[in-house]
Amino acid sequence: MLGEPIRDRRAERREATRAEILDAAWEQVRESGLAALSLRDLARTVGMQPPSLYSYFDSKNAIYDAMYAQGVQAFIDDQPAALPERAVEALKVMAHYFVGFCTADPARYQLLFQRTIPGFEPSAESYETSKQGLARTAGLLAGFGITEPRSLDLYTALVTGLTDQQISNDPGGRRWIGIVDDAMEMFYEHTTDKTSTRTKGRRTK
Amino acid sequence: MLGEPIRDRRAERREATRAEILDAAWEQVRESGLAALSLRDLARTVGMQPPSLYSYFDSKNAIYDAMYAQGVQAFIDDQPAALPERAVEALKVMAHYFVGFCTADPARYQLLFQRTIPGFEPSAESYETSKQGLARTAGLLAGFGITEPRSLDLYTALVTGLTDQQISNDPGGRRWIGIVDDAMEMFYEHTTDKTSTRTKGRRTK
DNA sequence: GTCTATATTTGGATAGAC
DNA sequence: GTCTATCCAAATATAGAC
Predict the structure, then answer these.
(1) Is the domain B9-58 a CATH 1.10.10.60 member?
(2) Chain A: which residues have CB within 8 Å of chain B?
(3) CATH classification of B70-191 is 1.10.510.10, yes or no?
(4) With b meaning 16 or more CB within 10 Å and e meaning fewer, what string describes A157-169?
């Protein structure tokens, strides 16, 4: 009997080609918009005829899904490993990471965090991975004593709002990035100074 | 010479047909997504052949633009006429109006506040109108003593963030709508208690 | 695995008769 | 203003030869 080769060169090459296709796809959506991904242009870019793409991906949505998975993984992998000890400073680092990650590639942000591609939904597996990202954020906030679900929701609203405004109204600029620190100070003070929330009373100021 | 008729029945009918087409277009985008607007389906819905639409709109983007103008006008017209005297309560009403308006019709929100339709940009005239809306908001905030541009930016980030999360992660629900009041209290306290901002010093807490 | 050829659908838009 | 007829382009996807 022949021994099995250590490496599967065929599989390696296949993976490399898949990666090459995905790279070209990212390039295309960054250039022309997420919704404008076209299998024709994509095939031409990588030097294939359009039908050949189907040897690597079952459909166009399968490409979107692979891109989604890549994006989620990048979000997790690139997260800062260590955070400042002081909670408010850690929040600033976290928020800057989120806004920076999203504004660095608006098409990716659109794919991951907005649901604007008609007919595309991430696969269950990819979606599961994405939930890990939010869970990690929740865990970090909990470490700072921020445990209420409402506070987590407020945090996500803040960082996505800053991101959204930055992308929509000052693309490539820093207008909303520049108030991230301010927003986090506001958030931190509010969530850790909740005497009025517990009493449910109206704030008399 | 014949006297000119008081009413131009032809023009009236034309306007009515245009309105009917736009109504059908809204229906379609609410159903299938903003990007999925199709002139064929649209024509079929209003009982026309597709080319007949071109008697009323020069192009598909002209339809988007008319919808944009309608949306902006609706946002302005539906604004609450009077606000509570207390600033923080007024902020809550304003924010609830914004989030309510947007979540009531996510396709409209996408058209007005996100720029996700490839190739579409609102006409200069429509865009001008939309800036009036923001100017009004700025004026109201100024009336409450909130005049710094950064504060206005923070406000818009907050309300769009709440809107975005509500639409993306709890469509039809109230998860983020339920923290609008809380967010506005946070915002108000932060923007009116700025001793630390002026000194530019790091907050010692 | 890649190609050619093709199917199929759909899209926006125009020409010209009535 | 509306229609028929048509164009043109682009899209995703499949069949089958090599």
Answers:
(1) yes
(2) 32-36, 88, 110, 113-116, 118, 150, 153-154, 156-162, 164-165, 168, 175-176, 178-179, 182-183, 185-187, 189-190, 197, 203, 205
(3) no
(4) bbbbbbbbbbbbb
